Amino acid sequence: MSKHFTAPAFRCALAIFFTLVSICSLRVAAQEEKGAGLVISPEAKAKDVGLAIYPGSKPHKEKDDDSTSANLGLWGGGSGFKLTVLKMETADSPTKVADYYKKALAKYGPVLDCSKASANPQDSAKDESSKVLTCGDDKAEAGGMLFKSGTKEKQHIVGIQPLGNGTFYQLVYVGAWGSGGKK
Predict the structure, then answer these.
(1) Would you say the pTM of this structure is higher than 0.70?
(2) What is the Cα–Cα distance from 125 to 59, expressed in whole angstroms?
(3) pLDDT tens across 106-130, in order?
């Protein structure tokens, strides 16, 4: 798997996720809201990440057997997590794609530009109990861009990289909730 995001925990989660997806495709639905459930699927749609697909895009595969999307979720006992990833490409420039997704992300709150390492040391040192989203250790690969919006519990992330004369981009939704939280 190529490195498009640099946060070690995020990369580790994606590595585990794609490994599980490549082994099997399994869906077990929750019995009721207080029940438990598991979703492991190589299929995800734009509505799963809460962002529209950039016009004219197509799924991106680095290898023939590569999955272009993934959907992972585990919940029970009032807590859980969800991770959804779509890998796409377009012939348009990274700047055009970035402008499109900055507008799209704005519906979830302020849009953070995490493209460069945080110049504000307090950004990654904010109160852990705060629901305010920060860039933390997340940043784009060299030459790329990374944007985030939402809350710590419901993060919408867009990673953008140049790809030849076009653009490779990833749409990511990361949701985590504890007892009493909602996904």
Answers:
(1) yes
(2) 36
(3) 999 999 999 986 544 445 445 555 7
